[in-house]
Amino acid sequence: MRRLPDVPPRGRAITVDLEGESLPAIEGEPVACSLVAAGEPLLARSIKYHRPRGPYCFAGACSHCLMRVDGVPNVYACRTPARDGMKLERQNAYPSAKVDIFESIDWFFPKGMDHHEMFAGVPVAEQVMAKVARQLAGLGLLPREPAPDVAPARTVRTRVAVVGGGAAGTAAARVLAERGVDFLLMERDAWLGGRLAHGAPEAGAPAIEDADRFPEGSVLTRATALGLYDDAEGRFLAVGVWEGEQPRLLKVYAERFLLTPGGHPPTLPFENNDLPGVYAGRAASLLLRRYDVAPESAALVGWGAELHALANLLHERGVKVVAVVDLRDAPPAGAHATAVRGDAPKAHGLREVSAFSFTREGGGREKVACDAVLVSVPVSPSFELARQGGAKVPFDEARGLFVVEADANGRTHAADVFAAGDVTGGGTAKDAAAAGRRAAEALVGGLS
Amino acid sequence: MSKAMICSCEDVTVDDIRHAVSRGFCDVESVKRYTGFGTGICQGKSCTAAVAALLAKEKALKPAAVVPFTPRQPLYPTELRMMASAPVDESQPPVGGLPQEVDHFPAALRPEGPVPAKAKVVIIGGGIMGLALAYNLARAGETDVVVLERGYLCAGASGRNGGGVRMQWGTPSLVELAKRSIDLMKGFARELGINVWLRQGGYIFLAKTKPVAQRLERNVSLHNRFGVPTRLITPDEARGIVPGLTMKDCLIASYNPEDGVIFPWPFLWGYAQGCQKRGVRVETYTDVTGFETSGGQVRKVKTTRGDIACDTVVLAAGAWSPQVANLVNVKLPNEPHRHEILSTEPLKPFLGPLVSVLDSGLYFSQSMRGEIVGGMGDAKEPAGLNMGSTLRFVSRFAQALMEQLPQVGHVKVLRQWAGCYDVTPDNNPILGRTPGLDNLLQMSGFVGHGFMMAPAVAERMAKWMATGESDELFTRFNLRRYSDAAGHSREFGAGTLEREDMVIG
């Protein structure tokens, strides 16, 4: 990864401290973005085999980028804004993440290890293993100092809690605003739009809503729904929000919960899919669109419209696209010149990606040099809140995903839970916006 | 080295999932527990669908049976100091806890085909009690046994506890049973071929009030009498064992270095595999729906997969026992009481013993994987089979833990869940024959500490059942103690035994 040349910087140039080494960064961008742009994709070692890891999802939905940040262990570097002088340390490695002697575990157990049965009942070996395992287990060290207290949690009451400010959530919020219904929209990112703002571009997609155009106080960005609970006063969302630089816990009670959280970038199991330099497709489009950071050369693998749109986006922005491997379908018209249908993807490289190989349909094995492998598959619906709220979450075999079951108006199995957009199984951003509007209209009708 | 990761948080590969299926773990909840996928920092966000797709593709599960594991709060790792910031009104009882899958499993998960039409022994409950008993019976030669479990293995309290095992009890029977259990746990891997990760880091009980301090003092001589090396320690000594412990408001502590923690799940898998190797049937996702009785005997157990004619029935359903007993008009005095618990991000080893503040019901330890695992009893918890989670619990716990261990403020909670204690009026178990139904045997009422008693209790119970030799355990803890001579129930709370007062929470 590198910063695109000839692009004006998006913020103040600062430096961060990576284990004593000073690296350039742009203030406020995710510090993992700064690190990969500075040529440091190796941020961690994995928990069991000490495999090298670098950021993958840029969505706080995996664990590849966990670092010790200013003395706090296991911080998502992909969600932490870069600050001047911040101290970053890689975890779970000895003597260092670049040369980690425990990497030998990965080589000693090429077929994996069965910790349930390994040395079970073998005298002495069993005790030794237990002692060694205890020392090797865990990620990161307990902080040395007590943490400062956070301000007391705040209680918020609203008629409709909208979770997720993407196409579906903002379209729903627009309807609620027009009807004069009190609502609170919560968005994890610092901006609205979801995939409209950081996915691959999509023909016919609606424009991104501006947070300022909603009624004052009805939109909270940098607000993460932590779970649905209930107590004597009813059902509420626990929400973690940043108020300036301070975290705060909110209890958001609502009569209706309109869930439009989209999906998580899923993992796609293939050999070395965890190597630094393998990124989720949405991570690549985020880095490119919001931070002007991109690989020099990339191989893309996955399926669906977003895969091909991403390849074209990268190509337009000067990235050398060396392969686009569609695992399910023949490439559509307008796909990148290298696009083929293929199978058996594999990433290559010792500590970071240096090449990618696959089997071309009807052809042989092909291997291409590249510095990134981008995995673009449809997002995996973020069904967690809906399920906590009592919605049904069947498995969609054709798509290989769990989806929230909702009717055309977003009604789920739970009377106060509505769902729209990617969380119900995907489609275009335009479809998601339309579903969001229908759900908002349907739930307004049911409010007394 | 080339590996295809399916859950990169826990380094679980595609082959690991296939291995779990080959061992008979096919539903998503069981595969999660056996392989550890989805138990890491991301809690399954990136991998659950991929695992489900693999299970569906390889026909390990029918499509309707592919259901995700229960998504726990918090959905993203959340610092304990954040959780501690929610106000808690201790004067009010806890309210809430959204319904969980454990309340009602999908019928699609039920195995096809009927249960055996007859068996000598039917054990109701596939938790550690039932499975350990079945295993011990099989080892004694009685293999015509069927174990009925309403969910997956580990669905009940055996899969929901914090893994603490201790000999520090207040009554002789429990000290003796716990001591024997820990001995059996040491040999478990050798006997059953699966690691249970016993780590004897000790238990430290803290006393904040005089009565509790006196209780700890009194216990020392009892424990020493059984060869348990418990000793009283000063706050300074406790801080020496657990660096950073504040001992705020604590008068004294008791410490037994031979207590410890285990990983609960492999006990169930190990016993179940040991049973199945010997021909015992372990039937998961199978509900008991009723009984057929005549002449003061249970004749048949009715299930969602057919009836089983049998000679003996053992009720080992933990917190569900009163509900099952009701089906045959037996009134048990046990009540289920929710206990909530949580687990944090894994950290490098820093905490040797399990620490418990007996006054408040707080306890915490560090698991083999490095997570802080802990809970806190709530004296105002109403009775009921509620396994939902509350924000109140996680806030109370965070406040109480940070009081004793302030450096944990930045440590992040990964998930919280709940299980039910199976509470009896005198905090003692119910074991042995049922008055009026001679072949219905009780094995319940362990008040949240059944897991650590099970290996020893099951050993004694199997011997008693197989040989008919008398054993005072099954008279002392008989259900009869709650009735007077005429068979009328005593007032609730009465009983004839000394109350066990070393229950946490």
Task: Put the structure in a nutshell.
The complex is a heterodimer of chains A (448) and B (505). Chain A has 448 residues and is α/β, with parallel strands linked by helices.
Walkthrough of the structure:
The complex is a heterodimer of chains A (448) and B (505). By secondary structure, chain A is α/β, with parallel strands linked by helices. Helix content of chain A is 19%, strand content 30%. Chain A folds into three domains: 135 residues, 2Fe-2S iron-sulphur cluster binding domain, sarcosine oxidase, alpha subunit, N-terminal domain (Ubiquitin-like (UB roll)), CATH 3.10.20.440; 177 residues, 3-Layer(bba) Sandwich (FAD/NAD(P)-binding domain); 99 residues, FAD/NAD(P)-binding domain, CATH 3.50.50. Chain A starts with a strand and ends with a helix. The mean pLDDT of chain A is 96. With 505 residues, chain B is of the alpha+beta class. Chain B is 28% helix and 23% strand. Chain B is built from 14 helices and 21 strands. In chain B, the strands form four sheets. In chain B, strands 3-19-15-18-17-16-7-9-8 form a nine-stranded mixed beta sheet. In chain B, strands 4, 5, 11, 12, 13, 14, 20 and 21 form an eight-stranded mixed beta sheet that branches. Chain B has a two-stranded antiparallel ribbon with strand order 1-2. In chain B, strand 16 and strand 17 form a beta hairpin. The mean pLDDT of chain B is 95. Chains A and B meet through strand 7, helix 3, strand 12, strand 13 and strand 14 of A and strand 1, helix 1, helix 3, strand 3 and helix 4 of B.
